[in-house]
Amino acid sequence: MLGLVLLAGLTVVALTGLLSYAAYDPRLPGNDTTPGKGLLGFYLFDWPTSPAWLYRVTQGAHVILGLTLVPVLLAKLWSVIPKLFDWPPARSLAQAVERVSLLLLVGGAGFQFATGILNIQLFYVFPFSFYPAHLYGAWIFLAALAVHVAVRLPAAIRAVRSRDPRRELRTGLAGTRPEPPDPDGLVPVDPAPPTMSRRGLLAFVGGGSALMISLSAGQTLDGPLRRTALLAPHGREYGTGPNDFQVNKTAASLGVTEADTGDAWRLVLIGAGRALLTRADLLALPLHTYALPIACVEGWSTEQVWTGVRLADLARLAGIPPGAAEVTARSVQRVGYFGQASLSAGQVSDPRSLLALRVNGADLSLDHGFPARIIVPNAPGVHNTKWVRELEFRREPR
């Protein structure tokens, strides 16, 4: 039962993770966090801007479901740990293949869950880049999972069908009996008396998963439930007023000062020519307002009301038709990842894609990207570049 829950849950986690990689669009300049991806990028496609909430849902599901599966994974490992150390390790070629897949499966699961949880806590202790390691680790884990499922799924289905789940859930500790002997040697020959019923184990694991959901789901929701997201490190309450919403990295942590964003700040616009625009110049252009979510790879998201200049209008000012214009946005930030990000022609041409100057009717705060930041529907949070100093438009390659 634990294995079947993991199979269903991990399938969703894997698919939403691969969608997140597609949303980063590593084919665009500056977006490739996984150099040498080769065949691993075979499925990449143009990430859409509609529906605007899609990345919010897929990445929220990826992170929250991953956390929810932690108790199930630990219970599954607890149930089979003695067999992981059997000696000799293999008695036949088929068993050797299965044992190798188990090594990659258990090691891969530990690596993926550990690095993923550390990343969403912004606890960067890796001696390597998280993004390629998590991507390559995922493919190794999925290959091992496929082998393991092919070998063990028939036995798992037979085991589930061999007894009535409803009757098992009505059986208390006094009526709990060990499994009958099996040909694979998974059942102990002389088991100790049971200390927990099967329904007790499932209730314990299910309760742990419910606790994980309750402590994390609030990070994808606005309003009072934000305060329940104790597993979210981004502050359940950030400041006051119109700029009271999550911040991944503050201006100070990335080396951005008020001198970088004060009166001397200019937006460099590059396209067919080159132009410098002050914030007053931008405010004099036609402004548009949209309610759009911003969602981060760590799983948090929020919807705010943004006001700014359409990227399509800025592409025209740069002399590039917006329907054929990609753009690279560069930030004034001095340290850290994602000081620049590229957007596709489809993202540039969407009328809701803005160089935002205000949020919720007020000027952006410094930590939220003042004097100007990108906001694009359905884009990963790190592609909504803050403290923009330069927009380089270019024609989309044909």
From TrEMBL:
InterPro entries: Mopterin_OxRdtase_euk, OxRdtase_Mopterin-bd_dom, OxRdtase_Mopterin-bd_sf
Location of the region described as Disordered in the Swiss-Prot/TrEMBL record: 168-188
Signal peptide: none
Transmembrane segments: 60-81, 102-124, 136-157
Alphabetized Gene3D superfamilies for the sequence: Oxidoreductase, molybdopterin-binding domain
Keywords of the record: Membrane, Transmembrane, Transmembrane helix
Source domain of life: Bacteria
Segments forming domain Oxidoreductase molybdopterin-binding: 262-397
PANTHER family in the record: BLL0505 PROTEIN, PROTEIN-METHIONINE-SULFOXIDE REDUCTASE
Protein's recorded name: Molybdopterin-dependent oxidoreductase
Lineage: Bacteria, Bacillati, Actinomycetota, Actinomycetes, Streptosporangiales
